[in-house]
Amino acid sequence: MYVSLDRAAPVPLYLQLKDHLRRKIEEGILPPATRLPPTRELAAELGVNRITVVNAYAELEAEGLVTGQVGRGTFVSLPASLADQAGKSHPPADRYGWQTAFLVAGKVSANLMMRDMLSLANQPGIISFAMGSPAADLLPAQDFRQALNVVLRREGTRALQYDLPEGCGELRTALSAYLAKQAVPAAEDEIMITSGSQQAIHLVTEALLRPGDTVITESPTYLGAIDAFQAHGIHIAGIPVDGEGLQFPLLERLIRQHRPRMIYTIPTFHNPTGVTLSVERRHALIDLARKHDLLILEDATCNELRYEGRALPTLRSLDKDGHVVYAGSFSKTFLPGLRVGYLVASGHIFRRLLSAKQTDDLHTSPLLQLALAHYMANGQLAQHIQRMCAVYRERRDVMLEAMARFLPARTRWTIPHGGLCLWVTLDPPVPTTHLYLKAIEHGVAFALGSVFYPAGQSGSHFRLNFSAHSPETVREGVRRLGKTLKSMA
Ligand SMILES: Cc1ncc(COP(=O)(O)O)c(C=O)c1O
Asked: What's the pTM?
């Protein structure tokens, strides 16, 4: 089957494939009762992941255009009257054909495979451990509404006006005090409010790196950072992690080999593995940065979500000469939908980041910043985080117990002291894409390990989020996962 898929387009591949098939059905090229090619065959033919094809078929089925028949395949089910109707509401995609000339030069590289995966995982009845989200049922929406009301009453239109790119003074003051309690040196004029820590990573990349530069990261690492670096034409040299974080002898070798400009690291509760960089390696990393004039981007997105052990010194606190830019967020500790995060940087770099922020989106919403500042000043944020840590600790422990009970004996996993995710390694190795699709059939989803590797290598790994669901749901999800794995043994 000939299908033209544009891998540079912002539209996920599964939607492109779905639209293509939908058109063929509407045009009668695929008449009712036609059997669509088996997902594995079509995926191989198109050179895409099987999840992409499964997802496209699922979307067509949700629209009533095809019907899946267990053991027989997927068949076109559209009556002609519906085809007319659908034709009216969905104009032929060719109308937009002229736009393709604009897609080739775009600096966009978001991993569409992740979107394909998430959309499959979001189907009703599936327990999804795929996202690194806080618990949806415990988001403090009510408290935040009150904070918004106070700000709107007190500040009036100031909260709704344009503001400075660095952010509102109130929030920067509150953050400076908040970070001081965590021993993170951050004067108010070294703090810039960003739209989530994702924007912080993007701004550092845009403002301080050039296409062709090399950045060293953990391998695996946070997917959004891989996307940001690749979108800017940055080479990524990945270093494996062990129980103490970045592996050191390799790091020195890679620095000599690649002459990188920056190291991007998530030293505490690393995403996706959950491991924490040891104190010795933290000191050694700062020494290396000094020795080689390297910038370090310390991603501290999950730092405050600690369930056991003592907090280790942040790289920022060990740095004396402005080598470390520190990125934090309110997404995991509070409300991801606010899109509020921050950067801490010293010296010339701060001003450069400021101009990148101004070019990017002028500033982050003052209304949200002021409400957050009010919430922090009242001590409510600290209380909320304390409550969440108790809840997430319990959920992590429930997941660990359930894994020991339901997963095959040789399966290994990390035991994170904080954060939202843990990392599973299968032994013997199992093709995880196949496992993913089987798991969806069994009503459970995870994040495929391969998407977190800068070089895209596969492996028998996946990431599980333990914070988003109640303990009962966590237990049931892991039981389903165990059943899936046993069905493939
Ligand atoms: C390590 C890490 N950094 C940054 C982010 C981006 O977070 P946000 O932009 O929501 O603050 C995430 C989100 O999952 C993350 O896990």
From this structure: 0.84
